[in-house]
Write a structure and sequence with these properties.
Radius of gyration: 21 Å
Structural class: mainly beta
Oligomer: single chain
Number of helices: 3
Length: 358
């Protein structure tokens, strides 16, 4: 890597603004990342804003606020050059955050190295826009690296915060209720839904990924239980709680709510614009010694598609039948929701579980 740009002085003078043009690239995105060597999705909210920053004759016209690094309520941010003809955004390595403890933090790209299990740092990350509006980088990952040694540690060690990163434009919202401090609280979050007729893939379902199967009747859906939604914090992994929190069924007895590990799926309904799970579900990891690492109880979740309609609700497609036997039928799907054979290589979903087939 030749050098890291420091735009902060110039950026203080430049003004960034949200674009109101619904057809532009500017707006809200879901950043979907994969853990290095794992099949666990981790999603964050990123924002593209209009920028006008000059540096050595180059105009940086897009500001990206990175939800994956949000410290004390402030998102790290980087500047890039958007080329409308090439449909690319080029983001040079640059300072992106001044940590109160560790000092200056740089945004970098990580590419594969000739050495096994190692990466090399790149001077820039180039994202290319796809037909569905998503952005795919030309590197294996983007990450953060300290350029100060203020804390006397971690200098030069990149953090892989965006492994196999893809940015999806927000096209849906998720609403519902969850328990916080023993009280039910309403929530709303942004999401990206990838509608594949038989399967609707939801990115940013509680900061992770959920696969929802459309049943044969085109009016109901099944969300398989057991599928990993989001990763556990490293401290919990070190204590033996597993790597992820998963969707589970729930039994309700009066005011008592408990996990139903026998439930094969969570039932719901689908209309032209909404997928709704009216009943309860939970997101948890079965902890060591049968203690529970619980993310929360959820109720009345609705996934609302902001544009267009859900194809499975209008086309009468053949999906997974609304019963436990069909929801656990050993068929294999890729992450695009397409059924694949036993020889398929990559990340697959089988009986609600994600696997890496080699």
């Amino acid at each position: 890597m030749s050098h890291v740009k420091d735009f902060r002085a110039a950026a203080a003078k430049a003004k960034a603004a949200r674009a109101n043009d619904g057809n532009s690239i500017y707006g809200n995105y879901i950043s979907n990342n994969m853990r290095d060597g794992a099949t666990i999705h981790e999603c964050y909210n990123d924002v593209f804003e209009v920028a006008n920053l000059e540096d050595n004759g180059v105009t940086y016209n897009v500001l990206v606020k990175l939800g994956g690094l949000n410290i004390e309520g402030q998102a790290a941010q980087v500047y890039g050059v958007y080329d409308a003809d090439a449909k690319t955004i080029t983001i040079p390595s640059q300072g992106c955050y001044n940590h109160p403890t560790y000092g200056n933090i740089d945004y970098i790209g990580l590419a594969e190295s000739d050495k096994p299990d190692s990466y090399k740092i790149t001077d820039e990350v180039v994202y290319t826009q796809q037909e569905n509006g998503s952005w795919v980088p030309n590197v294996l990952a983007w990450g953060m690296m300290l350029n100060d040694d203020k804390a006397g540690e971690m200098k030069g060690n990149p953090w892989n915060l965006g492994f196999n990163n893809v940015l999806y434009p927000v096209n849906a919202t998720i609403t519902g209720s969850t328990v916080k401090n023993k009280e039910w609280t309403d929530f709303e979050s942004m999401a990206y839904v990838d509608d594949q007729n038989e399967v609707v893939n939801v990115y940013n379902f509680e900061n992770g990924f959920a696969a929802i199967y459309v049943n044969e009747d085109g009016a109901t859906v099944s969300m398989p239980t057991g599928q990993p939604i989001v990763g556990l914090p490293q401290s919990a992994i070190d204590e033996g709680f597993g790597e992820s929190m998963n969707i589970t069924g729930v039994k309700v007895d009066g005011d008592n709510i408990r996990i139903d590990y026998d439930a094969k799926f969570v039932p719901g309904t689908i209309s032209a614009t909404d997928i709704t799970f009216p009943d309860y579900l939970s997101i948890c990891s079965k902890a060591v010694e049968d203690n529970l690492y619980l993310r929360g109880w959820y109720h009345g979740i609705t996934i609302n598609k902001l544009k267009g309609v859900f194809q499975g609700a209008t086309a009468g497609v053949k999906g997974i039948s609304d019963n436990a036997a069909k929801a656990n039928d050993n068929r294999i799907f890729n992450l695009a929701g397409q059924q694949v054979g036993e020889n398929y290589k990559g990340i697959v979903i089988k009986n609600g579980q994600k696997f890496l087939k080699k």
